Amino acid sequence: RDQDSAEQTPMIIHRAPLGTHERFCAFLIEHYGGVFPSWLAPVQVRIIPVASAFFGYAEKLEKELKSRFIRTQNDLSSDSFGKKIRNGAISKVPNLLILGEQETSEGSVTWQRHGTKERSMLGFEAFLGLLEEEIRNRIDWRKSAS
């Protein structure tokens, strides 16, 4: 803002090619507050099985997501379920997939977005279609939801 409180576009004039990439990354981090949309996030999906009995299904989904070039992590740690969810929130992963008995038997996932408590259960293929569209079209769901 200028002295009259009018919005102004900030500008940086820089001649050296070194440092411009770092500066651009810094602008992105500042703009998104570190909570990147799915298409930009270093880890796009974290899979959280609620118990070790569901690790096989988690690994199957991870393999499928990675085969479609979706950056995915599986949380197969011995941490409690609550801690796994918290770790996903702290890491600012945009999409958490929660897997339990019902999801495994139905071939579905429970999907939780970063920054929300809402969870949706849907078929894995339906989730995959929504995520791929979001990535392909560079959609920031937080802006389209408001």
Outline of the structure:
By secondary structure, the chain is of the alpha/beta class. Helices cover 41% and strands 16% of the residues.
Characterize the structure shown.
This protein has a domain at 45-145: Rossmann fold. Helix content is 41%, strand content 16%. The longest helix is centred in the N-terminal third of the chain and has 13 residues, at 20-32. The protein is an alpha/beta fold. The chain has helices at residues 20-32, 55-67, 81-90, 101-106, 124-136, 141-145; strands spanning 45-49, 72-74, 95-99, 108-113, 119-123. A hairpin with a 5-residue loop joins strand 4 and strand 5. It contains 6 helices and 5 strands, in the order αβαβαβαββαα. Strands 2-1-3-4-5 form a 5-stranded mixed beta sheet, sandwiched between helices. One of its GO terms (biological process) is threonyl-tRNA aminoacylation. It comes from marine metagenome. This is Anticodon-binding domain-containing protein.
